[in-house]
Structures are given as C-alpha cells and as structure tokens.
Amino acid sequence: xxxxxxxxxxxxxxxxxxGNDKALELCPHSKLTPSALDYLRAHGVEVQxxxxxxxxxxxxxxxxxxxxxxxxxxxxEFKGILCPNIVILNEKDQINYPEMERYIExxxxxxxxxxxxxxxxxxxxxxSWQERQDVVKLICxxxxxxxxxxxxxxxxxxxxxxxxxxxxxxxxxxxxxxxxPYYYKMSNTSLFEYFAEIARQSPLDILLYNIPQFTQELxxxxxxxxxxxxxxxGTKDSSRDLPRLINTMHRLRAQRPDYVVLVGCEEILFPSVxxxxxxxxxxxxxIIPEVIVEIYNKALAGQVEQARILQYRILDLIxxxxxxxxxxxxxxxxxAVRGFEVGPPRQLMSAEEQQYLLKLEAQISCVLGDMGYSxxxxxxxxxxxxxxxxxx
Length: 392
Hints:
Elements: E1 2-4, E2 8-9, H1 11-18, E3 23-26, E4 31-32, H2 34-42, E5 46-49, H3 70-73, E6 80-83, H4 97-109, E7 114-115, H5 129-143, E8 150-152, H6 158-171, E9 175-178, H7 188-201, E10 205-210, H8 220-225, E11 232-237, H9 242-252, E12 260-263, H10 269-274, E13 279-281, H11 289-300, H12 304-313, H13 315-322, H14 329-337, H15 351-371
Parallel strand pairs: 1-3, 2-4, 3-5, 6-7, 6-13, 8-9, 9-10, 10-11, 11-12, 12-13
C-alpha cells in the first residue's frame, strides 16, 4: 500500500508514485483533484483514509491558512512587467512554432520580468483546448525557467479549470490567472464558491483577473472574503479604474501585505506603480518591451520626471493599437512592425477592416520610428521633432 500525505494529489502524482500498487492510503487533509479521481477509477485503485487520531497535527484547512511568507516559500515572485503575448499563426491557421519561439526569446532578451500566455491578448477564447496547452508548453520550453510564467487557465467550467491547472503544473508554470466564468452571469455567492473551490484544489497559485469589459466584475468585498485562501496570491486589474486599483491595494494588503496587485492598463502604469502596484501585465510590452520595463524601473527608482515623460510618450502608440480595430489585431500589427511575421488573424475581418490595418501599420511605423526604432519604412510620417527614446 502506498501512503501519501500531499495536500493536493493530481493524476500526475499518482502515476509517478503508485506504480503497480492497487491500494492507496491518504491522510485526512489530502485533496484529490478531478483527474486524480479519474485515474483511481480507471486503474481500480482502492483508497483508504487514515483517521485524524493516527496522524500528526494536521495543517489547518486552506480557508484559514496564514499568508505565505515570500522569503521562505520558494515560490517565484510576480512583480515587474509580465508580457501577455500574442499568438502567431501561419498561413494554414496553425500555431507558427518557429516564429513564436523567436518572439518569446526576443521578449526575454529585451528584459521583461515574466510571461503571461493565454490572456486576453493571447486570444485564448479563439484557441482550442489543445492549442491553449500547446502555446503554454512552447513558452515553458523556450523560457527554461528564466522568468516566472503566469498562464491563463480560464475555462467554461470548474472541472476544466482544474484539469488545465494540473497540466500547467506538470510543465513548469508558476501560477494561473482566472477570470470569472464568462457567458453565464453568476451571483456573488456562487462566484465566491467557484474561486474558493478552485483555491482548495488547484496545484498552483491563483491570480484573480478583473476585466469587466469582457466578463462580470470581481467586487472588492468578494476578493476580501477570499483572502484566507493562501493559493489566491493576488489580482490583475484591467478595469481601467485607478481609484479601484488603489482601493484594492489599500483594503487587501491591510490583511495580506504580500498580496500581488498588477495593473492591466498601460495608460496608468506609472501612477499605479508609484502608488504601490506590484507591476503590470501590459500588452504594449509585447511591442516596446524596453520602454515599458524602463517606465517600471524609473517609477521604482523615484525618477518621476523621466517616467512621466515616457508614460505620456507611449500614449499615441497605445491608442493606435487599442482603438478603431478588433482587439488584439492592433497589438499584433505592432508586433509585425517590430519585424515578426504574425500571420493571419484567427477572427475573420471584412475587406474594409483589412484595409484599415494597412493604414494602421503605417501609422504605428511612424510612431515607432519617432521613438528611434528601426522599423518598416514609414509612409507619409509627419515631422514631430520629438527626441528619440531608444538608444539615449
């Protein structure tokens, strides 16, 4: 009989440690994930649980665990600029692995502090289950542990979220990001139970993702109720609401000083970091990673005037990529201007929209050329007399 004391037991754990044994003994606090239950049924394994009196003092349940100490946990820190990367496709509408590898390596070499696949910029809802796994696996292979990886694990139901989390854990992902379940609106009570159950069973830490323009809002009261769950380590806020972000830090860090708060809106990156944000998941970092990282670094260093200049300087680029075109095609166009073959869009576009993207490409080239980047030849760019911000 194999005896396991792990707090969370996945199918991967069982496969690695059961061998040919058909009997398993668990301590009272061990949690079996859905894939583990499937594995046990499929292999005819008999499960017994030890009585609490037979064990040493069991750890407290997840709902009352104290906040994890960052210095002793061995976990990766999520701070700085995490890049929510695009997904590059080939002409057959398949993932372009060589170009994706080149792009991810370029981002790491440019100094980004973490990678964030399967976010909104990565069009996860337009990818199949297998494609979502393949994108994250590729990024883990290219990364080789150099920077933390936060992977989107939002799926249509709780069971699929947990299965995706288990897969991510098996390939080296550091934490998962979760939006509220989309399409069907849930009551706040149900939403609490949803995140609490994932926190009890997930093998990875969880970043709550508030993006009310795409799914229902995560109320601060609800997030506060989830604070006792140690696996919920922070939040990403893409509400574009600076007062909400500040209140998030003020309320949640009063109880969890180590609580991670990332901003998802590049227009307020500098003020957010100045007010104490851990950093940001910034789509524009996939186009000008050097500048976005520099804004963060200068804000941390207290170089207010230099950071403020850079924050204003990137606004024209952000507005071009964000407005007037289907998201995230503007950001993919920006990546193309930096010299990558981004391939066709996954979402069909009209002839008028395709024509607009050609115009957008020229405009983005002008702005990046003004910044001092070597880009595709700008067409009819206005003379701005702005000093370059690259290679200063």
